[in-house]
């Protein structure tokens, strides 16, 4: 029982940490490409900015879904038999 709880705690930590690292790398790459595109064609900044914010929301949504799954495992653990 204790081993299962410990492994679930480790898995929750990995889910959140890897999700946070992936989301931050994705947003950083996207922001860099946005600045490159705006530097090349400044007249498209409004359209590109809208697309960038939508994409940033999708990247953050994937991370938040991972956090929700980790919380599910932490508090309503399906691996522990009642």
UniProtKB/TrEMBL annotation:
Q: Which Pfam families match?
A: ATP-synt_C (PF00137)
Q: State the function annotated in the UniProt record.
A: Key component of the F(0) channel; it plays a direct role in translocation across the membrane. A homomeric c-ring of between 10-14 subunits forms the central stalk rotor element with the F(1) delta and epsilon subunits.
Q: Which GO terms describe its cellular component?
A: plasma membrane; proton-transporting ATP synthase complex; proton-transporting two-sector ATPase complex, proton-transporting domain
Please name the InterPro entries in this protein's record: ATP_synth_csu_bac/chlpt (IPR005953), ATP_synth_F0_csu (IPR000454), ATP_synth_F0_csu_DDCD_BS (IPR020537), ATP_synth_F0_csu_sf (IPR038662), ATPase_proteolipid_c-like_dom (IPR002379), F/V-ATP_Csub_sf (IPR035921)
One annotated GO molecular function: proton-transporting ATP synthase activity, rotational mechanism
Q: What is the annotated localization of this protein?
A: Cell membrane
Full protein name: ATP synthase subunit c
Family of this protein: Belongs to the ATPase C chain family.
Where is each V-ATPase proteolipid subunit C-like domain found?
10-73
Q: What is its main location?
A: membrane
Swiss-Prot/TrEMBL site (Reversibly protonated during proton transport) positions: 60
Q: HAMAP family, alphabetically?
A: ATP_synth_c_bact (MF_01396)
Q: Which residues cross the membrane?
A: 6-31, 52-76
Q: Which UniProt keywords apply?
A: ATP synthesis, Cell membrane, CF(0), Hydrogen ion transport, Ion transport, Lipid-binding, Membrane, Transmembrane, Transmembrane helix, Transport
